[in-house]
């Protein structure tokens, strides 16, 4: 590899994992991470939990000297264009050459398109988390919009700070469409156990200075509002450069290679082929982003590796930990099994296990992950 080396756009888990994996296989070529984030690389999962609760300020992904020890350079700036023909990125009028390029630009919070939507805070970056935590310091009431895992985590964390929190979502139960009613009831119990009030079957019509108006004409007092309403992949650079993009995701093979030579993509922006699934899968999980980044970095260094394993993640709602592993493209049947202090939900399609959700059932989670990859049935009948 020439002096141009590896350039990575994005300092999240995929980007940093790509840099680390590349350096493990190539000790000499330059490695540069381009980022717009003002903070050194950090862990995102604690932002909606321990950090928001005020129980930790340490969210650094690595110690300060970790990057210097590995000769990984961090550059702050905005990449304005990709020149995949001449192997360069453009930062305004400046050009930076690359031998290999990894796109790990992640995703951005989806704006809340209602009157007053600009008043709602978001929670994606450490900058967002600081703003939210500062707002929570003087707040007595809060509304969290969206009952995905981030919304549930953040609502619980705010309630644990003594704030009166309403969690507003269009579903009767949190994540009912994705995980089913049995799981939705259990998640509701975990959320409300922290003091959160769940408000389902409605949407936000308008956000005022200290209140939220719902579609059903109810008004909820809110000193702060958090919109946890999903994200949009940051794939505009790739699309403008002519890379293959489908539904805002960059299409890559199992080695994270895009349609352009020596260009890879990983994380929230990637539609990646999974070797065990035998098809392309989109994921938005921290660990999977890191796994994909590791593949991209190793492949850029000349190693033959591919992405495999069933995607999964953990979520902490208050003091309760949920673990979920699934291919993520739906199921036909589900069955919940209650335990003394937890539960397991098994998900099947065509008689094959495609997902598992657990609370205090680590053995089931580990077994489920293996069965999902093996393509076997659930250990208990699912009908």
Automatic annotation (TrEMBL):
UniProt keyword terms in alphabetical order: FAD, Flavoprotein, Oxidoreductase
Keyword Cytoplasm in record: no
Xref: SUPFAM superfamilies: FAD/NAD(P)-binding domain, FAD/NAD-linked reductases, dimerisation (C-terminal) domain
Residue ranges of every copy of the FAD/NAD(P)-binding domain listed in the record: 6-293
InterPro entries: FAD-oxidoreductase/Apoptosis, FAD/NAD-bd_sf, FAD/NAD-binding_dom, FAD/NAD-linked_Rdtase_dimer_sf
UniProt xrefs under PANTHER family: APOPTOSIS-INDUCING FACTOR 1, RIESKE DOMAIN-CONTAINING PROTEIN-RELATED
Name this polypeptide is given: NAD(P)/FAD-dependent oxidoreductase
């Amino acid at each position: 590899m020439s002096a141009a080396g590896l350039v990575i756009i994005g300092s999240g888990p995929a980007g940093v994992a790509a840099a680390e994996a590349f350096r493990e296989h190539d000790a000499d070529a330059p490695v540069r991470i381009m980022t717009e984030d003002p903070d050194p690389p950090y862990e995102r999962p604690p932002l909606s939990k321990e950090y928001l609760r005020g129980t930790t300020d340490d969210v650094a992904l690595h110690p300060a000297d970790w990057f210097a020890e590995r000769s990984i350079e961090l550059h702050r700036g905005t990449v304005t264009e990709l020149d995949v023909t001449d192997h360069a990125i453009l930062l305004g009028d400046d050009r930076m050459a690359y031998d290999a390029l990894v796109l790990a630009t992640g995703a951005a919070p989806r704006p809340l398109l209602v009157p007053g939507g600009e008043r709602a805070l978001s929670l994606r970056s450490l900058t967002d988390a600081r703003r939210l935590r500062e707002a929570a310091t003087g707040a007595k009431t809060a509304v969290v919009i969206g009952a995905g895992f981030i919304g549930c985590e953040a609502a619980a964390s705010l309630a644990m700070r003594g704030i009166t929190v309403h969690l507003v979502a269009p579903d009767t139960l949190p994540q009912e469409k994705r995980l089913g009613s049995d799981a939705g009831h259990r998640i509701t119990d975990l959320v409300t156990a922290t003091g959160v009030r769940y408000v389902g079957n409605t949407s936000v019509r308008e956000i005022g200075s200290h209140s939220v108006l719902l579609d059903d004409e109810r008004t909820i007092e809110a000193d702060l509002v958090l919109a946890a309403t999903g994200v949009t992949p940051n794939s505009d650079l790739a699309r403008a450069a002519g890379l293959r993009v489908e539904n805002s995701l960059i299409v890559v093979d199992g080695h994270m290679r895009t349609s352009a030579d020596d260009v890879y993509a990983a994380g929230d922006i990637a539609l990646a082929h999974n070797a065990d699934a035998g098809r392309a899968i989109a994921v938005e999980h921290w660990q999977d982003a890191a796994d994909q980044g590791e593949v991209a970095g190793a492949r850029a260094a000349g190693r033959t590796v591919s992405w495999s394993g069933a995607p999964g993640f953990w979520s902490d709602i208050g003091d309760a930990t949920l673990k979920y592993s699934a291919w993520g493209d739906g199921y036909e049947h589900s069955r919940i099994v209650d335990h003394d202090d937890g539960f397991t939900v098994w998900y099947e399609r065509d008689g094959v296990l495609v997902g598992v959700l657990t609370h205090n059932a680590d053995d089931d989670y580990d077994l489920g992950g293996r069965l999902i990859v093996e393509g076997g049935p659930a250990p208990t009948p699912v009908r």
